[in-house]
Amino acid sequence: MGRLFGTDGVRGLANADLTPVLALELATSAARVLTGTRAVGVSGPGSVTAPAPSGGPGRVRPVAVVGRDPRASGEMLEAAVAAGLASAGVDVVLLGVLPTPGVAYLTGETGAALGVVISASHNPMPDNGIKIFAAGGRKLDDAVEDAIEADMQATPTEGRPVGAEVGRIRRDEVAVESYLQHLRAATPHDLTGLRIVVDCAHGAASELAPEAYRRAGAEVVVIGGDPDGLNINEGVGSTHLDGLRAAVLEHGADLGVAHDGDADRCLAIAGDGSDVDGDAILAILATSLAGRGELAHDTVVGTVMANIGFHRAMAAAGITVRTTAVGDRYVLEEMREGGYSLGGEQSGHIVLADHGTTGDGILTGLQLMARVAETGRTLADLASIVQRFPQVLLNVRVTDKSVAGAASVLEAVAAAEAELGDAGRVLLRPSGTEPLVRVMVEAATTEQAGTIAERIAKIVADAA
């Protein structure tokens, strides 16, 4: 059996790959690994004292918080996750529909032992996923994920809590207010005077994101804000920017931002209709923080997908770039190890370590809007700091992602790199969440990048 965890939790087709049984087993093992066994009356991190029946001595149980996006299968999987956690002796607080970064924040804010998010992020509605946060709202490292998988395979039958030691389950949908207050406090400048459009992807931020932007002072137009459980990411959100672009131009907005289904991403459209991707957002925030003396070690963390133009812009600004593999978990690991305050991905995952433990699309949107309001410059002007090299990204569907290392593929990549020289680059990357090999080419012209990308993609497909 292959590794269960991908680059961002466990994902699959809900009720086919990601079944309630798997969700229950995963939650049970995660609880055991992240909390350990706690004897009656023995406290530990993320525990609360619960009254014992019949007036007996208090018991101490760890607590988990659970949130989800609005896709229909989330209701089913939420029940399975809650049952698994409770069966491991963990008290469960159901937060309802809430963005992934909101669950991460509340995991730390409430002192919970772990947090669980049921979401497949930007994936289509039939998919779903389970993301797990450790105490403090931090993503799991590989060793912890491996320990959870090992525990699942061990399937212990003894030592399970019984009677009064079984965890209890309750709902708390008021906790979202604490997250909203956190977002407001982390906004460095009032947004009064800005008209913005927000595309919520019919996802977890459909109510919360517009409220956060309005509280900061912006005039807000909402699209993609009517989730029905079936329409999440359907033609809207951070992977479908045309609707946002049209709305920005129609309403004469200063800018627009798009989130994905669980709102841990933020991409933008400037007032003139131009795209502002994660590279540009990261560059804008990096120079802003550096100007205030708040960019730790004058360093920003990016991934191998960052455009050459981003690297050149940062070098011109005197900012060092640290590069990681794709995935905000790897960005986070590098940030923690180096003590860096800012990192992110071209896809719009931006991590502001002074305000959060994971990528937060709404927080990113607030910081970006604050920079526009503070400087009085248009977003297009601010984004012009990055002079992008044309970049073409093709997704090749495969049955075995190891074809990325096939001899014929490696030969094609080497030939392309020789052709490009210093004026471009090639990157092949197996997706961590889908059966895809991603072929990315940067070159001096779009035509050259496209020609080379298509050539390599065909060889990948043939090798598959």
From TrEMBL:
Quote the protein name from its UniProt record: Phosphoglucosamine mutase
Residues the record lists as binding Mg(2+): 121, 260, 262, 264
Annotated region Disordered: the residues are: 42-61
Q: What biological-process terms (Gene Ontology) are attached?
A: carbohydrate metabolic process; peptidoglycan biosynthetic process; UDP-N-acetylglucosamine biosynthetic process
User: Which Enzyme Commission number(s) are listed?
Assistant: 5.4.2.10
Alpha-D-phosphohexomutase alpha/beta/alpha domain location is 64-154, 178-273, 277-388
Source domain of life is: Bacteria
Cellular component GO terms, alphabetically?
A: cytosol
Q: How is the cofactor bound?
A: Binds 1 Mg(2+) ion per subunit.
Q: Which UniProt keywords apply?
A: Isomerase, Magnesium, Metal-binding, Phosphoprotein
